[in-house]
Write a structure and sequence with these properties.
With 145 residues, the protein is α+β, with helices and mostly antiparallel strands. The protein is built from 5 helices and 4 strands. The structure holds zinc ion.
Length: 145
Amino acid sequence: MKNPVSRVENPVSRVENPVVFVRQDHSKLCRFLWRLTPSIRERWFTFGTTIYYPIYANPDNQKVIDHELVHVAQFSRYGKFLFLLFYFILPLPIFFSGRWFLERAAFMIDIKNGMSVENAVRILADQYATPWPRRLMTKWFLRRA
Ligand SMILES: [Zn+2]
């Protein structure tokens, strides 16, 4: 098991900085976010080159790490401002959300790691505020899976 804060070799070549793993309760940012969105306690998320994981999660879960490393690379490519703008606001907060363009690449990794397309779409609809219509997400994944 990793220490709550640890540095690891970076397997994503596009990312220049080392990735840091932080258990959420060791982060002031996370404790602040818990008050705004309590459900974030149960989720892994990435900000820049830091991957935050839930208190009771296994920080060595390679499948989840593979997903989050996609976001680390996206942060590196687009920068924090554009990433967050796209993730939360443009073109719409839900239903035609830029979040889809960022998450679909990460969920393709999940699908390659064994997740079904149906499950990926269900998770995106239920936990990611339906970034795109279910039918269109399914179609997109099936074309590439
Ligand atoms: Zn994601």
